[in-house]
Amino acid sequence: MQLSRPPFYVCIFSLVFLFLLAAANAQQIDPKSYGGMKWRLIGPFRGGRALAVTGVPSQPNTYYFGAVAGGVWRTTDGGVSWDPLFDKQTTSSIGSIAVSDSDPNVIYVGTGEACIRGNISFGDGVYRSNDGGKTWNNLGLKDTRHIGKLIVHPTNPDIVFVAALGHAYGKNTERGIFRTRDGGKTWEKVLYFDDRTGGIDIVFDPQNPHVLFAAMWEGYRTPWTLNSGGDTDGLYRSNDDGTTWKRVEGNGMPEGPLGRIGVAVSGADSNVVYALIEAKKGGLYRSDDGGTNWTLITDDPAANPSNASMPLTAITTACGLIPTIPIASSTAMMAAQPFPSMAARIGLRKGISPPRSSIT
To answer: Which of 211, 254, 293, 301 yields a CA-CA distance of 20 to 30 A from 69?
Structure first.
């Protein structure tokens, strides 16, 4: 059985700048702390639709984003001005971008958006810059075509994981979860099932990077529809740096096919894991014991990844992880206020595409 939905023509993204001063054990945030924060355009006005956004913790005014057909952009003044960094490369479609925490000069880009619409651009692998985006080198994985997520080890800029979806319109074997431990000179395929199933998301445990969670998705297009869901869809956990993986199932997780999944781990408490799951009984799930047992937080249609191009955006702060529901994109980036509660998060419906998912 597959989760099947017709094509949708509005891709969406979200970018949240959070300024929270509450302590790690805070139970509630005073609404006065963020009441004055409003959505506002911060440009660039010709940057294009964007799915990949990241910042630099040691440089609070520096942010990067990758447009799905406009390359990589950077601001060093908090969004006042933006500079294109990727114009000389052979592709302009960006699926993911990550800056090394231990060396902000090192930037990795996974090309090819993984929002597999009816009209998409594909990429040609992974790129690395050692000089803050001035120059780039292609590191291979050219046949992955569409990369859902790329992450860099917090203390070693040469260790990188890539969640590669693979060809959107056909079968191929260069897909799944890849790892490099030498800065991209060589790649290992550490999680792979078949030529239809690819990686769509991957995260480190922020407190223990030996632990990772990865989401696998059998998602592909035809000219007339999008097919989502298969036997190997699921959330997987590794406790040994990505060498071996175990499927997370049962104990509150929905039954398959699961479809697209987004995953995030709390920065304040590694036991807290969130998963946004498309499945028939999909929604936002939470685990409080590192992924063993799960509880459905909401099944509101607005929180289902079948209605969003990015299944889960999550910001980790001193107060923990705040998942946010994406809002409609324009041709510019946005700065936004944090959401105080799940009710407020799922209440933000303006610009969210209506439910289009069906089970067949």
So the answer is: 301
Distance CA 241, CA 315 (A): 23
| Cα 45 to Cα 178: distance, rounded to the nearest angstrom | 34
* The Cα angle at residue 146 between residues 87 and 197, in degrees rounded to 5: 170
Indicate the residue type of 38. Answer: K
Torsion from C-alpha of 139, 142, 144, 150, nearest 10 degrees: 20
In 3D space, the residue among 116, 356, 95 whose CA is nearest the CA of residue 222 turns out to be 116
CATH architecture of 3-359: 6 Propeller (2.120)
Q: In 114-253, which ranges are E strands? A: 126-129, 137-138, 147-152, 160-164, 176-180, 188-191, 198-205, 208-217, 219-221, 226-228, 234-238, 246-248
Backbone angles phi, psi at 342, to 5 degrees: -60, -35
Environment class of 270 (CB within 10 Å of its CB; exposed 0-12, middle 13-18, buried 19+): middle
pLDDT tens for each residue of 126-149: 999 999 999 999 999 999 999 999
Residue given tokens 């406790």 in the structure block? 239
